[in-house]
Amino acid sequence: MAFILGVLPAFSQIRLGVKGGLNISKVHFNSGIIDSDNLTGFQIGPMMEVGVPLLGVGVETAILYTQKGLQFADGRMSDDFKSDFLEVPFNLKWKFGLPIVKGYLTTGPYVGFRLGGEKVWDAVAFQIEQKNFATGLNFGAGVEAINHLQVGLNYGLGLTNNYRGGDISGKNRTWSVTAAILF
Q1: 109 near 138, Cβ under 8 Å?
Q2: Which range marks the domain in which residue 23 is found?
Q3: How many domains, the chain?
Q4: Among 111, 69, 61, 106, residue whose Cα is nearest residue 86
Q5: DSSP 8-state assignment for residue 30
Q6: Residues near 1 by beta carbon (within 8 Å), at least 6 away in sequence
Q7: For the segment 50-91, what is each residue's pLDDT rounded down to a tens digit?
Q8: For residue 114, is pLDDT > 80?
Q9: What region, left, alpha or beta, does residue 57 occupy, with left being phi > 0 and alpha being psi -120 to 50 degrees?
Q10: Residues 6+ positions from 152 with CB-CB distance below 8 Å
Q11: How far apart are CA 150 and CA 170, in angstroms?
């Protein structure tokens, strides 16, 4: 086993690239007092993929500038509360299929650091404060064509309470449609 683990890095394939996409985020609160709508943002940044070609498994990580948040709409008015994050996902990746077109599945944790946006939001009857650090889990699937272009769908399930206001707390939930070019 030690020999296999020692030799495996020699056969691994390291690829760098750029990843970007569209985010559709929403905050799920633990109370029915606040109901948020979807908010559209984006993500972009460098990525790295390390894979073992014969087994089809590997890891994918990135440093992504991403926008998340929520939208309040009550019929009379609508407010968007966007925040900028630096997210670092670390996903296990499994590829399957033919050499020209492959499918893939990913899963793994992420950490996020708030870079900007309003820290305190005035809601209907109270203030909501946003935390500076977030963690969660990613689940994704996609297609890789000609060994250089990837298109995927990802769901980010926030694990930390990033929003607090009185007894109310909320967690991020984000759908992302992404494209990546690998070199």
Answers
A1: yes
A2: 15-182
A3: 1
A4: 111
A5: S
A6: none
A7: 988 778 899 999 999 999 877 766 555 567 778 899 999 999
A8: yes
A9: beta
A10: 104, 106, 140, 141, 142, 143, 177, 178, 179, 180
A11: 32
Please indicate, yes or no, if residue 118 is contained in any of the structural domains.
Answer: yes
CA distances from 151 to 39, 61, 105, 179 (A): 21, 16, 12, 4
Task: Establish if 10 belongs to a structural domain.
Answer: no
Q: Cβ(11)–Cβ(50) under 8 Å?
A: no
Task: In whole angstroms, give the CA distance from residue 36 to residue 44.
Answer: 25
Q: Other CB atoms closer than 10 Å to residue 167's CB: what's the count?
A: 9
What is the token pair recorded at 111? 């950490």
Distance between CA atoms of 26 and 73, rounded to whole angstroms?
13
What's the whole-model pTM score?
A: 0.83
Paired tokens of 172: 């991020």
**Identity of the amino acid at 97:** G
What one-character-per-residue DSSP string does 126-176 give?
SEEEEPSEEEEEEEEEEEEETTTEEEEEEEEEE-S--EEETTEEEEEEEEE
